[in-house]
Amino acid sequence: MAKNESPAPSKAEKNQVSQSYWSLVWWRFKKNKLAIAGGIIVILFYVSCALFAEFVAPYGLHTESDYLEGPPQWPRFRDAEGKWHLRPFVYGMEKHIDLATRERSYAVDTTKRYPIHFFVKAESYKLLGVINYDRHLYGVHPDQQEGYIYLLGTDRLGKDQLSRLFYGGRISLVIGLTGVIMMLFFGATLGAISGYYGGAVDMAVQRSTEFLSAFPDIPLFMALASVIPAEMSPILVYFMLTIILAFVRWGGLARQVRGLVLSLREREYVLAAQSFGAGDRRIVFRHLIPGALSHITVIATLAVPGMILAETALSWLGLGLRPPMTSWGVMLQEGGNIRAIRYAPWLLIPILFIIFAVLAFNMLGDGLRDAMDPYSGG
Q1: pLDDT for 117-149, tens place per residue?
Q2: Cβ distance 182 to 246 under 8 Å?
Q3: Less Cβ crowding at N or C end of the chain, within 10 Å?
Q4: What pTM was computed for the model?
Q5: What is the extent of the structural domain holding 192?
Q6: Is 226 helix (H, G, I), strand (E, B) or coil?
């Protein structure tokens, strides 16, 4: 070996783990099993609801049937005669109406058996909004035209509850994400400007945040949502509701970002940028906000469930989204009465989806909060 030649790296050196900040964040995040589980659940929610709701749902959003408020059909592998089947199936439902009380009830009809098939051809739709497609994840075989599968029952119009949950999840989850993005834009920008400039700018921004925080959330939501005209199109209501949620929530983030910027603006790299003649806009957007990015990421993750709950509460009160648009809050509003609780309790199933989504976001946010500070103990 020549004198000037460096020795070949050993196997240990090749496998040496990078000690960059983001590699440490990922290493610590992977150790938190609850955070990993929360992240997986969040991804599944957005993939199944926001992206592929038409494919995952067995029926269209407006597909109605004659089985009004029908109970869930449980998948079975064993029939009434005791025979086992490799392919799961559901039994049909037989409707009965009490002529005296006008009460509608259903009984399992063991003479009608509908096997569950996967990737079946059914109603056509646009996959991802652009691709014409007619396959659904599961459903009844096309040869059984009279067949039906309602795993979570039907609503008062005979619409499949599970399909509506996927379509409604798209609206609720996207409103939460869009509202947080708008909140981050206003909160992070105004908070950074407030902390960097100080003086009258800081006074104006902070007094605005205190004014917003002086109002209780739900009454303020109700007051702002009541301004939306009833005749406004559902799409405009959707965007107006998103703007309202972002408008109400940006103050808390702005105050936290301001506190971080007050300490970051005295750091050496910020002073060096100022000495080289960098403009205020470059310093704010290229140095101060990226310096607070880890904190902003954690706040955003923990704010999404708050947005989802706020939209759900407004829609449940009848002040948010309205039919024909469907969200988890709209579905709860339809099932939030004594009659539905007594005769069709499956209409309250959206509560479980909301709970799972909120818990998943909270677990993910807690994990990110710990991982973003990899140098702390624990």
Answers
A1: 999 988 888 888 788 888 999 988 888 878 889
A2: yes
A3: C
A4: 0.80
A5: 163-371
A6: coil
